[in-house]
Amino acid sequence: MKFRPAEQLIRHSQDLVTWHTMSTTPLTSAHLRGAAASISISAVFALVWGLNGSLALTAGWRFLALAVVVLISGVLAFLALKFSREAAHAPAPSGTGAPPPNPFMTPAYRISLIAMLVAFPVAARLLTASGREDAIMPVIVIIVGLHFLGLVSAFRNGIFAWVAGAFCLLGGVSLLLPAELRTPVLGLGCAVILWLGVLPLAFRSLAQLRR
Question: Which UniProt key words apply to this protein (predicted)?
Fold first, then answer.
């Protein structure tokens, strides 16, 4: 049976919630698909932030930073692919209970996403009008961080609260830096936060696979 794109999105988002709420029980196909999806999403956004920060560095540091960003992204992509392949051989979830709700359809997720998208242009316009264009990127990072708070209940995972706090702290501290340092610090800093946020997922899944 073939799944349509919308059905695939719902299935993988439900798998992601299943992974975030799983205990130390044996891994199932849903757990592994959820781990693969979560790692993939984090890796993509970390790659975007990391490239943005790396390209803002001077030539010598730029290539080193780019190499590190690409290397870590490659490792995460490998892990996501590994978990996805292992899911094909893992047992299906037991029980007949209703699947967890699609987190992308929850009010918390929708409100946080809409608020973030609305806040971007509003903040940019206000800062530009006040002559503080140099503060736009730090404020953008803070806004992105605040949006993660809505994901705590949507995905039932407190790690998003840590990510939110780290993003907001990074954005706030960067306002104290010279303007020319903000882009590399924010770009690479956000990438590191996302990498650290996904490490527990990767290590826990790998450990359970080896049991």
Answer: Membrane, Transmembrane, Transmembrane helix
Question: Among candidates 103, 203, 121, 107, which has minimal Cα distance to 160?
Answer: 103
Q: Which helix (H) or strand (E) holds 133?
A: none
Nearest one of 191, 202, 102, 110 to 150, comparing CA atoms: 110
Are 34 and 17 in contact by the 8 Å Cβ rule? The answer is yes
159-203, pLDDT tens digit by residue? 999 999 999 999 999 999 999 999 999 999 999 999 999 998 888
pLDDT of residue 37: 86
| Helices and strands counted in the chain (H then E) | 7, 0
- CA 131 – CA 145 distance, rounded (Å): 24
Please give the Cα distance from 33 to 21 (Å, whole number): 14
| pTM exceeding 0.90 | no
